[in-house]
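Quick one, tokens below. Sequence please?
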């Protein structure tokens, strides 16, 4: 076994612990359920309610799924799941979930279907994919996939000859962060993020809502840091849960974060508070960088941000006092205003000044277990280039752009896109401007959706394939990049209740109908999994029994022997970027004020809640019991001016005349008067989501405008404005 160098607040009740201790037979398979109707059995797996992939142990009592707890040997969760993870049972029991394959019988979007067999559905898809390949080429079949479950479907499409595949998680979420850090350090933050929060003495959160987005490891480490007295600095237009733990809360004017970052760096450089030895040893272009900061004084930043100059200086000095164990968090969903890669680069540069990259309390060096890939045949060679980023319009896009595929589908350029396969992502909630997504879907000859629930995107599909939930299936292996490298196994805990199938089975059967059976030389998923695990020198029976096999830890920090390697052109931390300059961009981030909204409007902000994951969980009865609809946060002065009060219903009208569902008002002093805030993922319009239908309002519907990041093609979506219309 080799190791590669590179990356709930809910407590388990004492009753749960006692019950778990009385259980035996961990790792028994679904087949055992038929012969073990009485008693309790446990199966280790890993969670799929969000992308964090925490290790879990699911318990089945008298043949029925009972509860889900954290796997105590999992380095990510340490035996504790978040609210979403413990509520995973609701995904299995959801009465609104898809039950059998469906083929459209009317116009797209009318949500009228006929139930068919799996053979009929897969024959339908295969015939149309063959027609697309013949008439337009296999490159005209595109895919959107989110999560590890899409692995085998993408394998089938690659065997078919498709090359255009994207996940909204890049252009609509973390992409600018990865590009900004890679331009600076030559490496990405990764997922899970390589943030050493548990050892941070000073943690700076800029629009990062730890405790609300519930990235489990980070939330646990945040609680640890707060408990031992770490200094917390929170920058946010809204007084978030994290802000309630802060020593310093900076209620910044939305869109001006880069001005604050530049002013902080101005203070560190002019007062010589930065880590001079670190910069001298690892830095490149520091003199040009320092010169560019001259005009970005705290007094200048006050005019832009509304943050008092003394507060800017005090917080900059607080960061310097604790360096290198000061972590300026890189964020996750960072597509805000269109300058996001440069703002993320400024966050990277601030961390570099503090000497935190590769240092304890800053950013550690992750590692992963070396698990060989399965020996498949070579994929066919494409005769055309990918179409998401023609002529490298966005030169630093390091992954495919979902909105680029959408644009090409609408325009037919550089060549037509005639088929989409959409796996486990609701594009109408994930991509900005749903009208453009609908326009693109109307251009298609084939739209296939593979999902657990009947999402809005599924409502536009030609074929809808019902997937087994993560508790009912095997998935590919998860050799995680983390502090403690490990290999995780997802395996079925209980059978699917109706005619749902696992993604690997769907992918294999579709490949066979396409004449691509040679790309699936294994008979079933366990043969594939055992081959890979054995090739890594590990025991597949042990992995099934434990759910996790731990690898050998590597040094985490430079001072402990982790290699200080920077994969930039200079081989160093690039404070001044010649590659940005050569491409016609600012080599050091430069601030441009954000555009103002119409008079009397509020900037629309949105985010997460700890009990929901995107727009995937609102029909989960266990999770919706904790939050069944969202509310719009509105400053109390605006509430009074508009003659409203908390729990009144209103509608939001955006700058383009789009009106939301009705939504309750949350009157609060915890948000600036110039903006409103709502939790993402509500306001469902899919008639199949009977429980979630019409509850709350959709922020995605109101995001009709976006600013595209010129460096990497990400879509800044915090550029929309709304007015408030009281409900009669």
């Amino acid at each position: 076994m080799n190791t590669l160098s590179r990356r709930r607040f809910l407590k388990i009740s004492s009753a749960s612990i006692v019950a778990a201790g009385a259980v035996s037979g961990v790792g028994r398979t679904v087949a055992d359920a038929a012969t073990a109707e009485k008693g309790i059995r446990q199966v280790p797996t890993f969670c799929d309610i969000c992308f964090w992939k925490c290790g879990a142990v699911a318990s089945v009592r008298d043949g029925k799924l009972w509860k889900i707890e954290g796997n105590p040997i999992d380095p990510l969760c340490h035996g504790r799941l978040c609210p979403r993870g413990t509520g995973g049972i609701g995904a299995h029991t959801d009465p609104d979930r898809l039950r059998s394959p469906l083929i459209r019988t009317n116009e797209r979007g009318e949500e009228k279907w006929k139930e068919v067999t799996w053979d009929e559905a897969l024959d339908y898809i295969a015939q149309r994919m063959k027609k697309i390949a013949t008439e337009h080429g296999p490159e005209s079949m595109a895919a959107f996939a989110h999560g590890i479950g899409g692995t085998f479907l993408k394998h089938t499409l690659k065997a078919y000859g498709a090359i255009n595949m994207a996940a909204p998680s890049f252009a609509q979420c973390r992409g600018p962060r990865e590009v900004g850090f890679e331009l600076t350090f030559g490496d990405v933050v990764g997922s899970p993020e390589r943030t050493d929060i548990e050892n941070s003495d000073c943690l700076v959160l800029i629009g990062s809502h730890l405790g609300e987005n519930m990235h489990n490891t980070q939330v646990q480490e945040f609680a640890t840091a707060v408990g031992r007295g770490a200094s917390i600095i929170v920058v946010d237009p809204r007084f978030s849960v994290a802000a309630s733990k802060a020593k310093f809360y900076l209620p910044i004017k939305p869109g001006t974060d880069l001005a604050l970052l530049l002013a902080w760096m101005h203070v560190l450089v002019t007062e010589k508070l930065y880590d001079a030895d670190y910069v001298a040893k690892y830095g490149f272009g520091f003199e040009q960088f320092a010169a560019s900061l001259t005009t970005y004084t705290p007094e200048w930043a006050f005019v832009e941000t509304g943050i008092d100059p003394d507060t800017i200086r005090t917080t900059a000095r607080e960061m310097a006092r604790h360096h290198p164990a000061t972590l300026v968090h890189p964020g996750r969903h960072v597509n805000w205003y269109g300058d996001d890669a440069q703002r993320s680069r400024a966050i990277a540069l601030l961390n570099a000044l503090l000497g935190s990259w590769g240092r304890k309390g800053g950013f550690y060096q992750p590692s992963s277990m070396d698990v060989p890939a399965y020996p498949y045949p070579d994929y066919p060679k494409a005769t055309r280039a990918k179409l998401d980023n023609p002529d490298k319009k966005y030169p630093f896009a390091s992954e495919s752009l979902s909105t680029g595929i959408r644009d090409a589908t609408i325009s037919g350029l550089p060549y037509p896109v005639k088929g989409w396969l959409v796996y486990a992502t609701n594009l109408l909630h994930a991509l900005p401007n749903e009208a453009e997504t609908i326009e693109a879907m109307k251009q298609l000859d084939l739209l296939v959706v593979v999902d657990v629930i009947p999402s809005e995107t599924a409502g536009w599909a030609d074929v809808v394939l019902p997937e087994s939930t993560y508790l009912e299936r095997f998935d590919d292996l998860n050799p995680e990049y983390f502090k403690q490298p490990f290999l995780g196994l997802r395996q079925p805990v209980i059978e699917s209740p109706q005619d749902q199938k696992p993604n690997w089975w769907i992918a294999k059967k579709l490949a066979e109908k396409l004449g691509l059976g040679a790309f699936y030389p294994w008979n079933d998923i366990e043969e594939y999994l055992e081959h890979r695990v054995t090739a890594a020198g590990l025991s597949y029976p042990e992995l099934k029994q434990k759910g996790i096999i731990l690898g050998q830890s590597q040094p985490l920090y430079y001072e402990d022997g982790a290699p200080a390697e920077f994969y930039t052109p200079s081989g160093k931390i690039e404070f001044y970027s010649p590659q940005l300059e050569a491409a016609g961009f600012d080599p050091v981030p430069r601030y441009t004020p954000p555009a103002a909204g119409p008079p009397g409007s509020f900037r629309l902000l949105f985010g997460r809640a700890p009990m929901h994951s995107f727009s995937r969980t609102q029909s989960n009865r266990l999770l919706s019991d904790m939050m069944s609809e969202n509310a719009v946060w509105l400053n109390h002065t605006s509430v009074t001016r508009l003659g409203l009060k908390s729990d009144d219903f209103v509608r939001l009208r955006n700058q383009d005349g789009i009106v939301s569902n009705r939504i309750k008002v949350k009157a609060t002093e915890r948000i600036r008067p110039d903006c409103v805030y709502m939790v993402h993922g509500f306001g469902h319009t899919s008639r199949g989501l009977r429980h979630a239908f019409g509850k709350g309002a959709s922020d995605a519907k109101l995001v009709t405008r976006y600013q595209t990041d010129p460096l990497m093609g990400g879509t800044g979506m915090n550029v929309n404005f709304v007015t408030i219309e009281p409900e009669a």
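Residues 706 and 717 are 5 Å apart (CA to CA). The first strand starts at residue 3 and ends at 5.
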